[in-house]
Amino acid sequence: MSYFTHQEDRRITEYALSFMGKRVPWRKLATTMKTGKTAEQLRLRLMSLKRRFGPTPTDVFVDVGSGIGNVVAQVAIETDVAASIGIEVRKDVAGLGKSRMDAFIDLTAALGAVIIHDADIKEMRFEIEP
């Protein structure tokens, strides 16, 4: 694969993020960047960046103010994190999120990594294990 500059990496990442949840038109980016790189090279570079800098199996994702847990569920499904934790101060909303995760865990095993706490972050204690 050809060399990519830091600026090109940033542009590829920002472009892909602008299409979150949609298909990325790599050919369009390849023609607008004018670097001589193909759409396939750009797509492969993003995959390489995600592998290098993305979440790992030892990472824990935390979403403060998680609501019903849509984001924590998506992270659990799309990445290989050890746990995806949501913290929601509203007990009724957190309860709804917990019940939705339980309802779909048989269909999507990755939801087993989701934990939703009904708590105020200001009153929580955190411990870090080495």
Characterise the protein shown here.
- The chain has 130 residues and is an alpha/beta fold.
- The chain folds into two domains: 6-53; 60-123, no CATH class.
- The chain is built from five helices and three strands, in the order αααβαβαβ.
- The chain has helices spanning 6-17, 26-33, 39-53, 70-78, 91-104, and strands at residues 60-64, 83-88, 114-118.
- The protein has a three-stranded parallel sheet with strand order 1-2-3, covered by helices on one side.
- The longest helix has 15 residues, at 39-53.
- It is elongated, with a radius of gyration of 19 Å.
- It is found in: Nucleus.
- It catalyses: L-lysyl(79)-[histone H3] + 3 S-adenosyl-L-methionine = N(6),N(6),N(6)-trimethyl-L-lysyl(79)-[histone H3] + 3 S-adenosyl-L-homocysteine + 3 H(+).
Question: TL;DR of this structure?
Answer:
With 130 residues, the chain is an alpha/beta fold. Helix content is 45%, strand content 12%.
What labels describe this entry?
130 residues; alpha/beta; 2 domains; three-stranded parallel β-sheet; 5 helices; 3 strands; 12% strand; S-adenosyl-L-methionine; EC 2.1.1.360
Outline the secondary-structure elements.
Blueprint: H1 6-17, H2 26-33, H3 39-53, E1 60-64, H4 70-78, E2 83-88, H5 91-104, E3 114-118
Parallel strand pairs: 1-2, 2-3
The total of helices stands at 5
Q: Could you spell the SSE succession in H and E letters?
A: HHHEHEHE
Overall number of structural domains: 2
Strand content: 5-15%
- Uncertain segments are none
Shape: elongated
Based on secondary structure, the structural category is: alpha/beta
Q: Helicity, in percent?
A: 40-55%
DSSP, total strands: 3
State the end-to-end CA separation: 37 Å
Sheet with the most strands, sense and barrel status: 3 strands, parallel
Query: In angstroms, what is the radius of gyration?
Result: 19 Å
- Order of strands, main sheet, comes to 1-2-3
Q: Let me know the average pLDDT.
A: 90
